[in-house]
Amino acid sequence: MLTLEGLQAAFDTGAIDTVVVAAVDMQGRLMGKRFHAAHFLDHGWQETHCCDYLLTVDMEMTPVPGYAAAGWDKGYGDYLVKPDLATLRPLPWLPGTALVLADLMDPATHADIAQSPRAILKRQIARARALGFQPMMATELEFFVFETPYAALRDRGPTGLVPISGYNEDYHIFQTTKEEPLMRALRNGLYGAGIPVENTKGEAEAGQAEINIRYAEALTCADHHAITKTAAKEIAHAQGQSVTFMAKYATDRAGSSAHVHQSLWTLDGRPAFRDPDAPLGMSGVMRHFLAGQLAHAADITLFLAPYVNSYKRFCPGLFAPTKAVWSVDNRTAGFRVCGAGTGAVRVECRIGGADLNPYTALAALLAAGLDGIERRLPLGPAQTGDAYAAQGVPEIPATLREAAGIADASDWLRGALGDDVVDHYVHAARWEIAEADRAVTDWDLKRGLERA
Ligand code: ADP
When you count CB atoms within 10 A of the terminal residue's CB, does the N or C end of the chain come out lower? Predict the structure, then answer.
């Protein structure tokens, strides 16, 4: 990591000349400006500004009407973009470049913008800390690697995609050797950017990879996740390849997940999920936390699966869960207890896809778990066997339409995240649904062109 003094020294030697200042948008993307390091060191480190439409655009950057936060009716003014200097770091894969993440604030009051993903997560972390807990999290990010460069995809369309490997590469060393120029650069680049990479591995589909980063305080975990996605795209682009974090890029291929590992620690650094004398080594706090996430799994699915495409990942037999049940080390359930009986005992939520926004996803999970702790919700028995086949257990919402409706109607979610946040993200979902509803797809054409 870099301090301002360290940045100054790196600028003086010519090692760094550019500073990316980036906030995080609703899609979890880094959005900002590139500063000349001299100007950043002079003024830019204090604040900059961006158009407030950044939290109201869809994936295509269309300014979507109907938001309370910003719109044509309000004239699309500015947000204050406040660098969080604790996130200042070199980006070794971009020549002479450093990055700092930033918070979006009201320029007049300097209050956090409620709908900003980083602010949403910070509020839930503050809630956890007020209860005496430090949330620690890790996201296991899966993605596909293609030999095809992004530019070729634009020319030829996504039908030209060539996965980097030809068959299921789960744990496969020879297959993953084929993607090693990208993955080695990614591991070493992130490490040089102060992101503690544990490992990369092949995943259970041709061209599918996973990266594991060591668990960290929840905000840091989300920062790591957002930077990792950008890094993977940037490095792939530089090598003439491409990657995708879509939840499901092809009908007949497995989807990509972002499983979230979670534990709470006391503020003096002891694992609050651990009770060596309790069954599975799970403390009462952990049982309540997990019970809260099960109780609210449907309310928060919008934040774990935010697009129409996200729901195409949920199918039996492909390791993406369909049931909101918990299990002990069983990959067919929505929630898996890992590390039972050890100091690393934790909850893995398996619902989220690789397309989730890590900030809002972690915030929603945390909100649900904390509610379980506050209300001392009891945890029922673990699911055993094949959870896909389990009858009479809660289902994960099957479509974005269903998830958005449940979130919209959830008094609990509104209380936990705030009406302004829930209204904003439900509106985003409804726009996405309307756009998908009016799209004529390849599937429509193949199915109907001749036969309809
Ligand atoms: P798996 O066998 O599912 O791949 P790993 O042992 O690789 O599990 O761990 C998965 C993730 O869980 C890693 O990113 C790791 O840093 C994280 N993790 C380990 N211990 C904890 C913990 N106590 N709280 C949260 N995450 C943790």
Answer: C
Residue 328 alpha carbon to ligand 1 centre in Å:
15
In this structure, the number of other CB atoms found within 10 A of the CB of residue 238 comes to 12
**Boundary residue ending a domain (59, 89, 113):** 113
Q: Does the structure show a pLDDT above 90 at 76?
A: yes
Distance 62 CA to ligand 1 centre (A): 37
Q: Which residue among 212, 221, 274 has the greatest number of ligand 1 atoms within 8 angstroms of its CB, and so is best to mutate?
A: 212
CA of 392 to the centre of ligand 1 (A): 30
Find the 127 Cα to ligand 1 centroid distance in Å.
Answer: 23
Look at 8-22, 81-95, 157-171, 221-235 and tell me which has the smallest mean pLDDT: 157-171
- Cβ neighbours of 402 (radius 10 Å): 16
* 133 and 173 belong to one structural domain: yes
Closest listed residue to residue 373, CA positions, set 352, 394, 347: 347
Rounded to the nearest integer, the mean pLDDT of the chain is 96
Residue 409, pLDDT > 80, answer yes
**d(CA 195, ligand 1 centre) in Å:** 15
Q: What angle, 0 to 180 degrees and rounded to 10, lies between the N-to-C axes of helices 297-304 and 419-438?
A: 60
Q: Please tell me whether residues 96 and 194 are part of one structural domain.
A: no
Q: What is the pLDDT of residue 64?
A: 96
pLDDT digits (tens, 9 = 90+) for 349-381: 999 999 999 999 999 999 999 999 999 999 999
Q: What is 94-138 written as a DSSP string?
A: STTEEEEEEEEE-TTT-PBPTT-HHHHHHHHHHHHHHTTEEEEEE
Instruction: State which ligand 1 atom lies nearest to the alpha carbon of 139.
Output: 14
Closest among 288, 287, 282 to 371, alpha carbons compared = 288
**Atom 24 in ligand 1: which residue has the minimum CA distance?**
263
Give, using CA atoms, the residue closest to atom 23 of ligand 1.
344
Last residue of one domain, picked from the residues 50, 83, 113: 113
Q: Tell me which residue has its CA closest to atom 20 in ligand 1.
A: 344
pLDDT tens per residue, range 273-314:
999 999 999 999 999 999 999 999 999 999 999 999 999 999
Q: Does residue 448 belong to any structural domain of this protein? A: no
Question: Based on the structure, what is the number of domains in the chain?
Answer: 2
